[in-house]
User: Fold these one by one.
Assistant:
Number 1:
Amino acid sequence: MHLRNYFKQAKPRSKVLILDANPDVTSKGPLFKAAWNDLYKGMIEYRGNSAVTAVDARTRTLTTDFDSIKGDVLNVLPPQRAGDIAKSAGLITANNRWCGVDWLSTESTAVKGIHVLGDATLSAPVMPKSGHIANQHGKLAAAAIIEIMNGRQPSADPLVSNTC
């Protein structure tokens, strides 16, 4: 059953509240907002600049800098950043969250000889974080590593595509 239909039939007074530490939706904002408005009008409320600072699982309460919110179901996502392995290796350079890379080779800007792929990287402009892009990063890194191992420079014009 479609979520909208479930809510309308089984939980007509339900509401989905999205608390986001970011000031606004960071990926495909207009698309998401249009879908929320068209498909879930009055059911979804988005609040930017609302970082969750505490969670009380027993009372099902979230705390932000501005208020406490009680819910029947809580789905809390931790702050997004590169993994602990990247942090302990000294690879995180961007916003204290992501690994900066040379986009011609995916080589870390912090540690030479280390190539970083996918969600651990600070995305290049118009390059979303997606499985398809991570696959493209792998191909880019492999081609660059082969060139480097053979004493050549990686391509100055690599081709990366996206299907999102």
Note: Strands lie at 16-19, 44-47, 52-56, 61-64, 68-70, 92-94, 98-99, 101-102, 107-108.
Number 2:
Amino acid sequence: MLLHWDKDIFRNYLKNGVPVIVSDIFLGVGGNMISVVLGRMGAVVMSAAAIANMINQLMMVFMMGVSGASGVITGNTIGAGEFKKVREYGKTFLAIAVLVSFFAIICIQLVRVMVFRQFQFGGVTVQAFNVEDSTKRLAGQLVNTLSFITTFIMLSQILTKGILRAGGDTRFLMIADVLFLWVVSVPLGFITGLLLKWPPYIVFLFLRIDEVIKCVWCLSRFFSWKWIRDVAVRGK
């Protein structure tokens, strides 16, 4: 049974799995391009971005938990043939994502304040990052920019990595992930950051603007209900 070959499963895997692989590859390379833009803007910007990304990991914990749970429940519900419930569950997950994003924003801001504060322990001054004040100010601006688009990012991720992916709409999601990152965010990042020399927090916003566009586009796809499909291979 371990080496059993099933052409129907293999064909189904290629149809639904390859777009996911392609999407994640281009997202990974795109993330490196974002680092290239920030790195070429100077050491201060790169240091501030590293601090902001560290705080961003807090949001990722919430995001991965919600999107993972929504994907499992959505996939199981579709597999059970309860398509009406899929719509109801999907709307519920979106509402949960909005609420969780607000909680994440509060946590991000609290962490931002704690990270940049100095504490006294036995006469010794302790702080999370021993950096210049200019780096701290810039990191704070980047974190505020991140907070501004957190709700969009949360909705985008729960749709692309949870609900719509569990519904088997992987080709649509591949287009969404690759198109907006490589046609919008990366070019705008290079133009505003390296050519126009705009403030780093604006460049940072443009580098993540694909999440905002993707959120709106995927919400439109969600409410069309075209993504609901049973991709399971049934036994003969």
Note: The CA atoms of residues 28 and 50 lie 17 Å apart.
Number 3:
Amino acid sequence: MAKENILVVDDEADILELVQFNLIREGYQVTGAASGEEALKRAKAGSFDLIVLDLMLPGIDGLEVARVLKNDKKTEQIPIVMLTAKGEEVDVVTGLELGADDYVTKPFSPRILVARIRAVLRRKSKAPVDDSAVISIHGLEIDPGRRLVVTDDGPIDLTYTEFQVLYILARRPGWVFTRSQIVDGVRGSDYPVTDRSVDVQIVGLRKKLGSYGKYIETVRGVGYRFKETP
């Protein structure tokens, strides 16, 4: 049974109770907080393996809570799964760029939320990503040293940018990357590339990958991710 300690933050009592109930049933240790101020106090005083954070909070909102936590050495490594209302795409993008790990939109299925939490905790428990290691996933071999992508049908000829985009996504399967995070990973934060440019690169990359292109998933209004399971 899971023993990780999770902080759940939501100002709606029924949602807070629902999330806590389902996580406790899965074997997690759970602490609740009903405001941003309480969340920060508990996060800094305790030792948590993950935080489920509602963005729409009275007083200090969820984005500010995430910003404070990610700028504190004591709490910066704690994964955050955001709870958001539909239509808050801008807030989702901002949260991910602040360092949140995933998000679930309201209304949500408790089973999906628990599955997302498990996935984030699983990624956290893995060894740090080796920037020089060859990635083998879903029949693709991605070699960053030789800048080579090989499938069962042979090598695929990619441009520098296409290779970088694929490598950024595939090295962390399941993670959602915003367009600006992809740009930063490819060229650096000072490189003037628009969101539209990223979309064009993705279209070209999927075309070259053929049947393997399906593993690059669009996260509507947010960005892209590489599918974690076939």
Note: Residues 5-125 form a domain with the Rossmann fold fold (CATH 3.40.50.2300).
